[in-house]
Amino acid sequence: MGNEQKNGKGILLTIGWLSVILLTFNLMPPMLLFFPICIGVVIRRDYQRSKQGSAMIYLGIIGGIIGWLLGWYVSNNLM
């Protein structure tokens, strides 16, 4: 596939990093954790951006865990 057909990198990066941020602040359910992981895999494989794709995968997992723990903490202590 040539570079002229790969023009969706910007939207993938935007959606992926937005998913990481929303997961971290528990604004998106942790069951949707697969968004940044899948987008990170696509960025690594199709766009040869291994550092950015790996960072998105790892931070997506960490953000999902932190968001889940933050939501659990808030629901148990404030309600």
Short précis:
Keywords: Membrane, Transmembrane, Transmembrane helix. This protein is an all-alpha fold. It has helices at residues 9-24, 34-46, 50-78.
Features:
3 helices; 79 residues; transmembrane helix; mainly alpha; transmembrane; membrane
Polypeptide structure, described:
The chain is mainly alpha-helical and 79 residues long. It has one domain. The chain has helices spanning 9-24, 34-46, 50-78. Helix 1 runs antiparallel to helix 2 (34-46), helix 1 (9-24) runs parallel beside helix 3 and helix 2 (34-46) runs antiparallel to helix 3. The longest helix is centred in the C-terminal third of the chain and has 29 residues, at 50-78. The radius of gyration is 15 Å and the shape is elongated. The termini are far apart. The mean pLDDT is 80.
What's the layout of helices and strands?
Elements: H1 9-24, H2 34-46, H3 50-78
Low-confidence stretches: none
Q: Biggest sheet, in brief? A: none
**Tally of strands:** 0
How large is the share of residues in beta strands? under 5%
N to C succession of SSEs = HHH
Q: Specify Rg, calculated over alpha carbons.
A: 15 Å
Count every helix, treating DSSP H or I runs of 4 or more residues as helices.
3
Distance between the termini: 53 Å
Structural class computed from helices and strand pairing: mainly alpha
Binned, the helix content reads over 70%
Shape: elongated
Average pLDDT works out at 80
Provide the domain count: 1
Transmembrane segments: 15-43, 55-74
Keywords: Membrane, Transmembrane, Transmembrane helix
